[in-house]
Amino acid sequence: MLEFFQYQFMQRALIAAVLVSVACGVVGSYVVIKRIVALSGAISHAAFGGVGLGYFLGVNPVLAAIPFSIISAIGIGAVKQKVKISEDTAIGILWSVGMALGVIFINLTPGYAPDLFSYLFGSILTVSNSDIYIMLFLDLIIIATVYLFRREFLSVSFDEEFSKVAGLPASWIYMLLLALVALSVVVLIKVVGVILIIALLTIPAAIAMQYTYRLGMMILLAVGLGMLFTTVGLYISYLFNLASGATIVLVLGLAFLLSSLLKKDNW
Amino acid sequence: MKAVELNDISIKFNEQYVLKDISLCIDEKDFMAIIGPNGGGKSTLLKIILGILTPDNGEVKVFGREPKQAKDLIGYLPQKLSFDPDFPINVYETVLTGRYHGLFKGYNQKDKEAVLHTLKDVEMHDLKDRQISRLSGGQMQRVFIARAIVKGPKLLLMDEPMASIDPEMQNSFYKLMSQLKNQMAIVLVSHDVGAVSTHVDKIACLNRELYYHGSVENAANGLEEIYHCPIDLISHGIPHRVLREH
Question: ipTM value of the model?
Answer without folding.
Answer: 0.87
